[in-house]
Amino acid sequence: MPRYCAVKACRNRGRTAFKKANKRISFYPFPLHDEPRLQKWMGNIKQGEWTPSRHQYVCSEHFTEDCFDIRWGIRYLKNTAIPTLFLSTEHVVVLQHKL
Ligand SMILES: [Zn+2]
Q1: Which of 10, 23, 51, 97 is the most buried (most CB within 10 A)?
Q2: Cβ contact 59:27 at 8 Å
Q3: CA 11 to centroid of ligand 1, rounded, Å
Q4: Using CA atoms, how far apart are residues 99 and 81, in angstroms rounded to an integer?
């Protein structure tokens, strides 16, 4: 099933991972099992009253490089990562960083 990014302004969708302008885009599920962290994700994504499901994802473009661990060439999202990068028309808005 193709995945898509839950961030409204973001058009990324596709398979589990793909390349866009030489950047690797991958999709990460919401931390539904980790309520405090989920609240931070929701606070940053700002889409009003809405509850993400197990089938919704946020793409790697909303995370800074230090949110990832790379092992054996595979990029993993750290279990403390919070999405902080959101495109607002032409500007990249950097929200207050995690923790
Ligand atoms: Zn996205």
Answers
A1: 10
A2: yes
A3: 7
A4: 9
Q: How many angstroms separate the alpha carbon of residue 79 from the centre of ligand 1?
A: 18
Query: Can you spell out the DSSP letters for 2-66?
Result: -EEBS-TT---EESSEEEETTEEEEEEE--TT-HHHHHHHHHHH--SS----TT-EEEGGGS-GG
> Residue 57 C-alpha to ligand 1 middle, in angstroms?
8
Strand partners, 94: 85
Mean pLDDT of 20-34: 90
- The alpha carbon of 96 and the centre of ligand 1 are apart by a number of angstroms equal to 18
**Domain residue spans of the chain:** 3-94
Contact call for residues 43 and 49 (beta carbons, < 8 A): no
Cα 35 to middle of ligand 1, angstroms: 21
Residue 15 scores a pLDDT above 80: no
From ligand 1's centre to the CA of 62, what distance in Å? 6
